[in-house]
Amino acid sequence: MTTPDPSAIAPHSTAFHRELRRIDLNLLVTLDALLVEGGNVTRAAERLAISQPAASHALARLREALDDPLFVKTGIRMEATPRALALAPQVAACLQQAYGLFQPLPDLDPSRMQADIRLTFPEHIETLLLPSLLERLFHEAPGIQIHARSLPLDRVLDAIDTGEVDLALIASSAESRAWQSREPLFDVGFVLMYDPRQVTLPPRPTLAQLSRLPQLALGYVGSYPSAVDRFFAEHGAPRRQTATAVGVAVVPEMVRRLPIVAILPDLIALDEATRTALVIEPFAPDELSVTVSMVWHRRHEAGALAYVRTVLRELTGEGVHGVLR
């Protein structure tokens, strides 16, 4: 998404923040009420739902801070001074803007949204979710353009910070950063895949048996240890990785040709011929899974990206396998 360049806005100095912090900005609310009520302290107090002495005290503080009486008695009436009259439109505009900052954003019509959104996710999740996401957006929010790309997991968080991507779906327990938001979507288990003509294994082999065989890993995680790596290590049976594939599409062909095993997310879409030729069985179904989460920078909490997150949340609300129905 195109976002304003923070460097284009001159930052306030430390002295500015410290000086502003010393000023009670609630005094502006009192001044506005006094201006509306023609300097009548009693009516201003009623408008503010405070006591008359509290309103008088606030007026005294305003006079001291602004070095001006602000309101002077003329006969039986109070009249605003030239300084108070000059401040009136500025104070009113300032308070209106401040009030608006604290109001919830209005619901936006998705059909009128215009945005280019850059997503990144592992190949197998892209295969599962991107067609359904694009179909929803085509009908409901045609002005939202999606540009998907694949990044190693160890680059994703930096890419979110720099704006290289707007939203990431990650299948990892790696911690996001304090200024990034994260929302879990669904859990993914794993399957063991091998060709029985290349590898001889008993049904439900042990980790010790698997650790002695060459294994094919996926390159998505980059320099992070994968959930499968950690699972083997925690059980004292480190994996014997002999090859790494960029994506999952090539894995069935590799296990057909080599005496190698692969442990993959159970979201892999396989044709019937592949399922018939290869052994594909659940791997540690009660012990190993990962959570797929959405991660984004907090500067994108609202707008078109919030709508895309809502669509993804709805698509996976009944479990990710429901997307395939």
From TrEMBL:
It comes from the Bacteria. PROSITE patterns: HTH_LYSR (PS50931). Keywords: DNA-binding, Transcription, Transcription regulation. GO terms for molecular function: DNA binding; DNA-binding transcription factor activity. CDD domains: HTH_ARSR. Residues 23-81 form the HTH lysR-type domain. The keyword Transcription applies. Pfam families: HTH_1, LysR_substrate. PANTHER family: HTH-TYPE TRANSCRIPTIONAL REGULATOR LEUO (PTHR30118:SF6), HTH-TYPE TRANSCRIPTIONAL REGULATOR LEUO-RELATED (PTHR30118). Belongs to the LysR transcriptional regulatory family. This is LysR family transcriptional regulator. It comes from Pigmentiphaga aceris.
